[in-house]
Design a protein that fits this description.
Number of strands: 4
Mean pLDDT: 93
Number of domains: 1
Order of helices and strands: EHEHEHHEHHH
Shape: globular
Distance between the termini: 44 Å
Structural class: alpha/beta
Strand order of the largest sheet: 3-2-1-4
CATH topology: Rossmann fold
Helix content: 40-55%
Radius of gyration: 15 Å
Length: 178
């Protein structure tokens, strides 16, 4: 199966890539993350992905657009819905790329993180699959969470401390509002 995997960061790619390859996927990575703030963080995550994917022998497609203003315009005054928008914009870009590239399915490394809303990711992915006529592959990659952390540390990969957006960075330092 020829599959496209949206990649949020290198650490979250390790085990999903391993699983997909074991399942026989001919996998291509797709990087598009306009939500990441600040710009230095965006660059560091992209560079870490470049380093890891070269090591892993993964073909990549980069939509290297740092469109922070569009992301912020989409979530301002709707901060409680920011994750929905964030998932939607990235998964929609992946679905469009999957259709354009004639991939058999698309998925995302967001499904690896214990910090993401899996039911919402799955709902959005399945909706986009219908809209763009490319199946969304859902697998709960969280069962390999600890192994992925151990492996990324052993490789010396940069490990970010927050999801990526300015709001999650604030939560890192100030905590979540009750």
């Amino acid at each position: 199966m020829k599959g496209l995997i949206h990649i949020c960061c290198a650490n979250c790619l390790i085990y999903p890539l391993k699983v997909l390859r074991e399942e026989g996927w001919e996998t291509t990575g797709f990087f598009y993350n306009p939500n990441i703030h600040p710009y230095q963080e965006y660059v560091r995550r992209k560079e870490t992905i470049e380093t890891y994917t070269r090591r892993a022998g993964l073909k990549m497609i980069y939509r290297d657009e740092y469109d922070l203003e569009e992301f912020l315009r989409s979530v301002v005054y709707r901060e409680h819905e920011r994750c929905r928008h964030c998932y939607l914009c990235r998964l929609e870009a992946a679905a469009k790329m999957a259709r354009k590239g004639k991939f058999d399915a698309f998925t995302t490394t967001l499904l690896y993180s214990k910090h993401q809303n899996h039911s919402l990711i799955k709902e959005i992915g399945e909706s986009l699959a219908k809209q763009f006529s490319v199946p969304f592959y859902y697998e709960d990659f969280r069962k390999w969470w600890q192994e992925g952390i151990h492996e990324s540390k052993a490789m010396g990969l940069y490990r970010q401390q927050y999801c990526g957006c300015i709001y999650s960075e604030k939560e890192r330092y100030c905590g979540k509002k009750k």
